[in-house]
Amino acid sequence: MINISASETPLTDAELDQIEQWLDSDAMPETAMDISMLDGFFTALISGPNLVHPTRALPWIWDSEEGQAQPGFETPQQFEQVVGLLMRYWNMLANTLNQNPDAYAPLIYLSGEGDAQESIIEEWCTGYMLGIALDPHGWAPMLDEPSDEISLIMLYGTESGWEELDRLQLGPDYQRDAADALADCATAIHAYWRKATAPPIRNTGKIGRNDPCSCGSGKKFKLCHGAPAANEA
What we know:
The chain has helices at residues 13-23, 35-47, 54-62, 76-99, 122-133, 136-144, 148-157, 159-168, 172-197, 228-232, and strands spanning 109-111, 118-120. By secondary structure, the chain is mainly alpha-helical. The protein has 10 helices and 2 strands. A two-stranded antiparallel ribbon has the order 1-2. Helix 2 crosses helix 4 (76-99), helix 2 crosses helix 5 (122-133) and helix 7 (148-157) crosses helix 8.
């Protein structure tokens, strides 16, 4: 039985490097995720409409294509060490998305140097889509009518999206903008499902400043009828 308990202590840069090295080591199948794919995968699992137990994620980390191939750890202790780091990674992302989403940043690769540097987001988006695939029924409402946020991830994380990118030939500026938008996409999707699955709140008759304005404009109350200029009118 896998022990998935893990410390709440955030990972250090050295420990993130250690995860990356393990995923790229000879102990892992060739189809193992890299750390960018892992980051997208965990982000989707944490953000989705239903709880997905971390143990369901492990086979797909070792084998991102079929979830079947197994790692070749030398000892049980080595296995527990790696799983412990992975679960701390899970906890770190969950705490950030749930408690401080403004600090969330997807872990993506960069290529090139200086002004020629480009963001590589396909691995992260592919991992995110793999996370969605573990709960296709739960995610169905969002996939049936994709928002701009999920559409961007699908564009860079699915075969049909890659075909569309080849057809459109959008260029590096578009990918740069897509990379810049990725954090906002992830936090918006996370917020959507948290709101969708939250228990109803009893109406107290008061409108919060960050609540939607009751006039139906779609703006926050503080930016609409709760704005100072509106009150002075």
